[in-house]
């Protein structure tokens, strides 16, 4: 997926992308990037949730894919912010059931609970895992389980 592909999916969106190493340490850069974009769009109140969720996506890519580089996308179409992470693995993410005292495995549950929508799209050379947050004050349609 290229930045042009992001624009094609939402032609009216303000979009930006950034490449970074596929390492857990890149989560800090991703959080700063997402926070800066949200502040630029006047959506700083979404930062806490967005930073937590992008950390989960970056951590999953670093932990489970073996990729060298990830690409972070941020878009805003006036109603919905989409944050996406592209990696080179074609293995799709799966929410797993975890025990209450498990030390890991809850990341995608957090993404599911805190985002408006989330998903993963298979690409020719990997996948893109994304989540969306709605602009505060916008009407939220019913969410499917």
Automatic annotation (TrEMBL):
Alphabetically sorted, this entry's keywords are: ATP-binding, Kinase, Nucleotide-binding, Serine/threonine-protein kinase, Transferase
The superkingdom listed in its UniProt entry is Bacteria
Q: Which Pfam families match?
A: HATPase_c_2 (PF13581)
InterPro entries to which the protein is assigned, alphabetical: Anti-sigma-factor_SerPK, HATPase_C_sf, HATPase_dom
Q: Which GO terms describe its molecular function?
A: ATP binding; protein serine/threonine kinase activity
| CDD domains in the record | HATPase_RsbW-like
Annotated Histidine kinase/HSP90-like ATPase domain ranges read 21-131
Membrane-spanning ranges: none
Family annotation (PANTHER family): ANTI-SIGMA-F FACTOR RSBW (PTHR35526:SF3), ANTI-SIGMA-F FACTOR RSBW-RELATED (PTHR35526)
Q: What is this protein called?
A: ATP-binding protein
């Amino acid at each position: 997926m290229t930045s042009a592909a992001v624009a094609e999916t939402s032609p009216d969106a303000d979009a930006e992308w950034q490449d970074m190493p596929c390492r857990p340490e890149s989560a800090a850069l991703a959080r700063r990037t997402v926070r800066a974009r949200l502040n630029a769009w006047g959506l700083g109140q979404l930062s806490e949730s967005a930073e937590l969720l992008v950390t989960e996506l970056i951590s999953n890519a670093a932990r489970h894919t073996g990729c060298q580089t990830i690409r972070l996308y941020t878009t805003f179409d006036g109603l919905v912010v989409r944050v996406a992470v592209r990696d080179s693995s074609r293995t799709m993410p799966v929410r797993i059931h975890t025990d209450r005292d498990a030390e890991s495995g809850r990341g995608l549950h957090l993404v599911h609970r805190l985002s408006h929508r989330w998903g993963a799209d298979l690409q020719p050379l990997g996948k893109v895992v994304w989540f969306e947050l709605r602009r505060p004050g916008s009407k939220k349609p019913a969410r499917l389980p």
